[in-house]
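Please describe what follows:
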Amino acid sequence: MTMNDVSDHIGVSIATISRVLNNSGIVKPKTREKVMNGIRELDFVPSSLGRNLRTTGTKTFLICVQSIENPYYAEIVRSIEEEAKKRGYYIMICESYSSLKRYKYFADAVKSKKADGIILLSPNAKDAIEYFREAPFVVCGETDGTFDCDTVNIDNEKAACEAVEHLIRAGAKRVAFMGGDSKSALQRFAGYEKALREANLPSDETLRLSNLFSYDEGYAAVSRLAESGAAFDGIFAGTDILAVSAVNALIAQGKRVPEDVKVVGFDDLVFAKMCAVPITTIRQPRKAMGAAAFNLLYEKAVRKTDDKNKARDSQRIVLEHELIVRSSSK
Protein backbone atom coordinates (compact mmCIF):
# COMPACT_ATOMS: atom_id res chain seq x y z
CA MET A 1 0.00 0.00 0.00
CA THR A 2 1.24 3.48 -0.88
CA MET A 3 0.32 7.05 0.08
CA ASN A 4 -1.58 7.22 -3.20
CA ASP A 5 -3.95 4.57 -1.81
CA VAL A 6 -4.36 6.53 1.41
CA SER A 7 -4.97 9.73 -0.56
CA ASP A 8 -7.67 8.09 -2.68
CA HIS A 9 -9.31 6.57 0.37
CA ILE A 10 -9.67 9.73 2.46
CA GLY A 11 -9.66 12.38 -0.26
CA VAL A 12 -6.64 14.30 1.00
CA SER A 13 -3.58 15.22 -1.07
CA ILE A 14 -0.34 13.27 -0.76
CA ALA A 15 1.45 16.49 0.26
CA THR A 16 -0.91 16.94 3.20
CA ILE A 17 -0.49 13.30 4.26
CA SER A 18 3.29 13.73 4.11
CA ARG A 19 3.12 16.85 6.30
CA VAL A 20 1.07 14.94 8.87
CA LEU A 21 3.43 11.95 8.88
CA ASN A 22 6.51 14.11 9.20
CA ASN A 23 4.91 16.66 11.55
CA SER A 24 6.01 19.45 9.25
CA GLY A 25 4.12 22.42 7.87
CA ILE A 26 0.69 23.67 8.89
CA VAL A 27 -2.23 21.25 8.83
CA LYS A 28 -5.69 21.99 10.26
CA PRO A 29 -6.53 19.85 13.31
CA LYS A 30 -9.60 18.35 11.60
CA THR A 31 -7.56 17.44 8.53
CA ARG A 32 -4.80 15.92 10.67
CA GLU A 33 -7.40 13.82 12.51
CA LYS A 34 -8.92 12.72 9.19
CA VAL A 35 -5.52 11.62 7.90
CA MET A 36 -4.63 9.70 11.05
CA ASN A 37 -8.04 7.96 11.10
CA GLY A 38 -7.56 6.95 7.47
CA ILE A 39 -4.09 5.59 8.19
CA ARG A 40 -5.44 3.53 11.06
CA GLU A 41 -8.37 2.23 8.98
CA LEU A 42 -6.06 1.07 6.21
CA ASP A 43 -3.36 -0.14 8.61
CA PHE A 44 -0.91 1.88 6.55
CA VAL A 45 2.78 1.67 7.53
CA PRO A 46 4.75 4.56 5.98
CA SER A 47 8.05 3.61 4.36
CA SER A 48 11.00 5.62 5.65
CA LEU A 49 12.85 4.67 2.50
CA GLY A 50 10.03 5.99 0.36
CA ARG A 51 10.04 9.29 2.25
CA ASN A 52 13.79 9.64 1.97
CA LEU A 53 13.78 11.75 -1.17
CA ARG A 54 11.19 14.15 0.24
CA THR A 55 12.20 14.47 3.88
CA THR A 56 15.25 14.26 6.06
CA GLY A 57 16.04 10.60 5.40
CA THR A 58 15.52 7.29 7.12
CA LYS A 59 16.59 8.61 10.53
CA THR A 60 18.81 5.52 10.74
CA PHE A 61 22.59 5.19 10.97
CA LEU A 62 24.49 1.95 10.57
CA ILE A 63 27.31 1.05 12.95
CA CYS A 64 29.82 -1.34 11.44
CA VAL A 65 31.97 -3.39 13.86
CA GLN A 66 34.35 -6.23 13.10
CA SER A 67 32.52 -8.53 15.51
CA ILE A 68 30.05 -7.95 18.31
CA GLU A 69 32.03 -10.49 20.37
CA ASN A 70 34.72 -7.85 20.97
CA PRO A 71 33.80 -6.08 24.24
CA TYR A 72 35.79 -2.99 23.19
CA TYR A 73 32.87 -1.80 21.08
CA ALA A 74 30.17 -1.98 23.77
CA GLU A 75 30.65 1.43 25.41
CA ILE A 76 31.21 3.17 22.07
CA VAL A 77 28.01 1.72 20.62
CA ARG A 78 26.07 2.58 23.79
CA SER A 79 27.29 6.17 23.56
CA ILE A 80 26.33 6.41 19.90
CA GLU A 81 22.86 5.14 20.74
CA GLU A 82 22.46 7.73 23.51
CA GLU A 83 23.35 10.52 21.09
CA ALA A 84 21.05 9.05 18.43
CA LYS A 85 18.08 9.13 20.81
CA LYS A 86 18.68 12.82 21.47
CA ARG A 87 18.37 13.48 17.74
CA GLY A 88 15.48 11.13 17.08
CA TYR A 89 17.69 8.66 15.21
CA TYR A 90 17.91 4.89 15.25
CA ILE A 91 21.01 2.71 14.90
CA MET A 92 21.58 -0.69 13.36
CA ILE A 93 24.68 -2.75 14.13
CA CYS A 94 26.45 -4.59 11.29
CA GLU A 95 29.38 -7.00 11.56
CA SER A 96 32.11 -6.82 8.92
CA TYR A 97 34.40 -9.67 10.05
CA SER A 98 37.01 -7.55 8.20
CA SER A 99 35.49 -8.74 4.90
CA LEU A 100 35.79 -6.29 2.00
CA LYS A 101 32.70 -7.90 0.46
CA ARG A 102 30.66 -7.07 3.55
CA TYR A 103 32.02 -3.50 3.67
CA LYS A 104 30.88 -3.02 0.07
CA TYR A 105 27.46 -4.42 0.93
CA PHE A 106 27.02 -1.90 3.77
CA ALA A 107 28.30 0.96 1.61
CA ASP A 108 25.78 0.08 -1.09
CA ALA A 109 23.02 0.08 1.55
CA VAL A 110 23.85 3.67 2.48
CA LYS A 111 24.24 4.77 -1.13
CA SER A 112 20.82 3.32 -1.96
CA LYS A 113 19.29 5.36 0.89
CA LYS A 114 18.48 2.42 3.14
CA ALA A 115 20.30 4.35 5.87
CA ASP A 116 21.45 7.96 6.19
CA GLY A 117 25.07 7.17 7.02
CA ILE A 118 27.45 4.74 8.67
CA ILE A 119 30.03 4.78 11.45
CA LEU A 120 32.93 2.40 10.83
CA LEU A 121 34.38 1.20 14.11
CA SER A 122 38.01 0.10 13.71
CA PRO A 123 38.06 -0.79 10.01
CA ASN A 124 41.52 -2.35 9.63
CA ALA A 125 41.30 -2.53 5.85
CA LYS A 126 42.13 0.78 4.20
CA ASP A 127 40.65 -0.51 0.93
CA ALA A 128 37.25 -0.69 2.64
CA ILE A 129 37.20 3.09 3.05
CA GLU A 130 37.07 3.60 -0.70
CA TYR A 131 33.63 1.96 -0.89
CA PHE A 132 32.15 4.77 1.21
CA ARG A 133 33.41 7.79 -0.70
CA GLU A 134 29.94 8.55 -2.09
CA ALA A 135 28.16 8.01 1.22
CA PRO A 136 28.15 9.87 4.56
CA PHE A 137 30.53 7.99 6.86
CA VAL A 138 32.86 8.46 9.83
CA VAL A 139 35.74 6.26 10.97
CA CYS A 140 36.05 5.75 14.72
CA GLY A 141 39.37 4.13 15.68
CA GLU A 142 41.98 2.47 13.45
CA THR A 143 43.18 5.66 11.79
CA ASP A 144 46.78 6.46 10.96
CA GLY A 145 46.48 9.84 9.25
CA THR A 146 46.10 8.34 5.78
CA PHE A 147 42.31 8.14 5.88
CA ASP A 148 41.01 11.25 4.09
CA CYS A 149 37.70 11.33 5.92
CA ASP A 150 36.11 12.31 9.22
CA THR A 151 37.84 10.36 12.00
CA VAL A 152 37.74 10.00 15.77
CA ASN A 153 40.62 8.37 17.61
CA ILE A 154 43.30 8.70 20.27
CA ASP A 155 47.04 9.04 19.67
CA ASN A 156 47.89 5.33 19.83
CA GLU A 157 51.64 5.80 19.50
CA LYS A 158 51.77 8.38 22.26
CA ALA A 159 49.60 6.23 24.54
CA ALA A 160 51.73 3.12 23.97
CA CYS A 161 54.92 5.07 24.57
CA GLU A 162 53.51 6.28 27.90
CA ALA A 163 52.55 2.71 28.86
CA VAL A 164 56.04 1.36 28.19
CA GLU A 165 57.68 4.32 29.91
CA HIS A 166 55.61 3.40 32.97
CA LEU A 167 56.94 -0.17 32.83
CA ILE A 168 60.49 1.12 32.57
CA ARG A 169 60.02 3.49 35.51
CA ALA A 170 58.65 0.51 37.47
CA GLY A 171 61.95 -1.29 36.87
CA ALA A 172 61.40 -3.34 33.70
CA LYS A 173 64.47 -3.60 31.46
CA ARG A 174 63.42 -6.22 28.92
CA VAL A 175 59.87 -5.56 27.79
CA ALA A 176 57.98 -7.87 25.45
CA PHE A 177 55.33 -6.65 23.01
CA MET A 178 52.03 -8.38 22.24
CA GLY A 179 49.79 -7.24 19.38
CA GLY A 180 48.04 -7.86 16.08
CA ASP A 181 48.54 -6.38 12.64
CA SER A 182 45.87 -3.66 12.58
CA LYS A 183 46.76 -0.02 12.12
CA SER A 184 46.32 0.68 15.82
CA ALA A 185 48.53 -2.31 16.71
CA LEU A 186 51.28 -1.00 14.43
CA GLN A 187 50.98 2.46 15.99
CA ARG A 188 51.22 0.95 19.46
CA PHE A 189 54.26 -1.05 18.43
CA ALA A 190 55.85 2.20 17.20
CA GLY A 191 55.18 3.74 20.62
CA TYR A 192 56.68 0.68 22.31
CA GLU A 193 59.88 0.98 20.28
CA LYS A 194 60.06 4.73 20.85
CA ALA A 195 59.95 4.28 24.62
CA LEU A 196 62.71 1.64 24.52
CA ARG A 197 64.83 3.81 22.25
CA GLU A 198 64.48 6.90 24.45
CA ALA A 199 65.43 4.80 27.51
CA ASN A 200 68.45 3.34 25.67
CA LEU A 201 67.06 -0.16 26.06
CA PRO A 202 67.45 -2.82 23.36
CA SER A 203 64.59 -3.84 21.08
CA ASP A 204 64.79 -7.63 20.95
CA GLU A 205 62.98 -9.42 18.12
CA THR A 206 62.57 -12.51 20.27
CA LEU A 207 60.32 -10.47 22.55
CA ARG A 208 57.93 -9.40 19.77
CA LEU A 209 54.79 -11.50 19.92
CA SER A 210 52.92 -10.48 16.78
CA ASN A 211 49.76 -11.49 14.90
CA LEU A 212 47.90 -12.11 18.14
CA PHE A 213 44.17 -11.41 18.23
CA SER A 214 42.44 -13.74 20.69
CA TYR A 215 42.87 -14.73 24.33
CA ASP A 216 43.96 -18.25 23.35
CA GLU A 217 46.59 -16.96 20.92
CA GLY A 218 47.98 -14.60 23.55
CA TYR A 219 48.04 -17.28 26.23
CA ALA A 220 49.89 -19.72 23.95
CA ALA A 221 52.42 -17.09 22.84
CA VAL A 222 53.34 -16.02 26.39
CA SER A 223 53.52 -19.65 27.50
CA ARG A 224 56.01 -20.39 24.70
CA LEU A 225 58.02 -17.29 25.57
CA ALA A 226 58.25 -18.30 29.24
CA GLU A 227 59.13 -21.89 28.38
CA SER A 228 61.86 -20.75 25.97
CA GLY A 229 63.91 -19.36 28.82
CA ALA A 230 64.02 -15.89 27.26
CA ALA A 231 64.80 -13.14 29.72
CA PHE A 232 61.98 -10.59 30.12
CA ASP A 233 60.55 -8.68 33.05
CA GLY A 234 57.78 -6.69 31.40
CA ILE A 235 55.01 -7.11 28.84
CA PHE A 236 53.16 -4.39 26.97
CA ALA A 237 49.97 -5.87 25.50
CA GLY A 238 48.18 -3.98 22.73
CA THR A 239 44.76 -4.96 24.13
CA ASP A 240 43.38 -5.88 27.52
CA ILE A 241 42.33 -9.27 26.17
CA LEU A 242 45.97 -10.03 25.43
CA ALA A 243 47.03 -8.57 28.78
CA VAL A 244 44.69 -10.92 30.67
CA SER A 245 45.98 -13.86 28.63
CA ALA A 246 49.54 -12.84 29.52
CA VAL A 247 48.85 -12.61 33.25
CA ASN A 248 47.13 -16.00 33.33
CA ALA A 249 49.85 -17.65 31.25
CA LEU A 250 52.59 -16.21 33.47
CA ILE A 251 50.88 -17.44 36.65
CA ALA A 252 50.47 -20.90 35.09
CA GLN A 253 54.22 -20.88 34.36
CA GLY A 254 55.01 -20.12 37.99
CA LYS A 255 55.80 -16.45 37.39
CA ARG A 256 54.72 -13.76 39.81
CA VAL A 257 52.97 -10.64 38.55
CA PRO A 258 54.26 -8.00 39.07
CA GLU A 259 57.30 -9.20 41.06
CA ASP A 260 58.80 -11.25 38.19
CA VAL A 261 57.02 -9.73 35.20
CA LYS A 262 55.10 -6.48 35.06
CA VAL A 263 52.17 -6.22 32.62
CA VAL A 264 50.36 -3.26 31.03
CA GLY A 265 47.34 -3.56 28.72
CA PHE A 266 45.35 -1.22 26.53
CA ASP A 267 41.65 -0.13 26.41
CA ASP A 268 40.59 -0.41 30.09
CA LEU A 269 37.84 -2.94 29.45
CA VAL A 270 35.80 -3.93 32.47
CA PHE A 271 37.59 -7.25 33.04
CA ALA A 272 41.00 -5.56 33.30
CA LYS A 273 40.25 -4.67 36.91
CA MET A 274 38.54 -8.05 37.50
CA CYS A 275 41.60 -10.13 36.59
CA ALA A 276 43.33 -12.18 39.33
CA VAL A 277 45.95 -9.43 39.24
CA PRO A 278 44.18 -6.17 38.31
CA ILE A 279 45.80 -4.85 35.15
CA THR A 280 47.41 -1.48 34.55
CA THR A 281 46.11 -0.21 31.24
CA ILE A 282 45.57 2.70 28.88
CA ARG A 283 42.00 3.97 29.14
CA GLN A 284 40.44 5.00 25.87
CA PRO A 285 37.62 7.55 26.25
CA ARG A 286 35.16 5.27 24.49
CA LYS A 287 32.04 7.17 25.56
CA ALA A 288 33.46 10.43 24.22
CA MET A 289 34.59 8.65 21.05
CA GLY A 290 31.09 7.36 20.37
CA ALA A 291 29.48 10.74 20.97
CA ALA A 292 31.99 12.52 18.74
CA ALA A 293 31.56 9.96 15.95
CA PHE A 294 27.77 10.29 15.99
CA ASN A 295 27.84 14.08 15.98
CA LEU A 296 30.32 14.15 13.10
CA LEU A 297 28.12 11.81 11.07
CA TYR A 298 24.95 13.69 11.97
CA GLU A 299 26.50 16.95 10.80
CA LYS A 300 27.75 15.29 7.64
CA ALA A 301 24.42 13.65 6.82
CA VAL A 302 22.25 16.72 7.33
CA ARG A 303 24.57 19.65 6.70
CA LYS A 304 24.20 22.04 3.81
CA THR A 305 27.05 23.00 1.49
CA ASP A 306 28.30 26.56 1.63
CA ASP A 307 27.62 29.34 -0.87
CA LYS A 308 30.19 27.90 -3.23
CA ASN A 309 28.64 24.45 -3.00
CA LYS A 310 31.78 23.06 -1.44
CA ALA A 311 31.56 20.74 1.55
CA ARG A 312 33.85 21.32 4.52
CA ASP A 313 37.21 19.55 4.86
CA SER A 314 37.47 16.27 6.72
CA GLN A 315 37.67 16.61 10.48
CA ARG A 316 40.08 14.59 12.60
CA ILE A 317 39.29 14.46 16.28
CA VAL A 318 42.03 13.14 18.58
CA LEU A 319 40.88 12.54 22.17
CA GLU A 320 43.03 12.17 25.26
CA HIS A 321 43.89 8.79 26.78
CA GLU A 322 44.67 8.05 30.44
CA LEU A 323 47.09 5.63 32.11
CA ILE A 324 45.28 3.65 34.82
CA VAL A 325 47.79 2.11 37.24
CA ARG A 326 46.83 -1.13 39.00
CA SER A 327 48.57 -4.08 40.67
CA SER A 328 50.02 -5.70 37.54
CA SER A 329 52.79 -3.11 37.28
CA LYS A 330 53.30 -1.87 40.83
About this structure: Confidence is low (pLDDT under 50) at residues 48-55, 304-310. DSSP finds twelve helices and twelve strands in the chain. The radius of gyration is 25 Å.
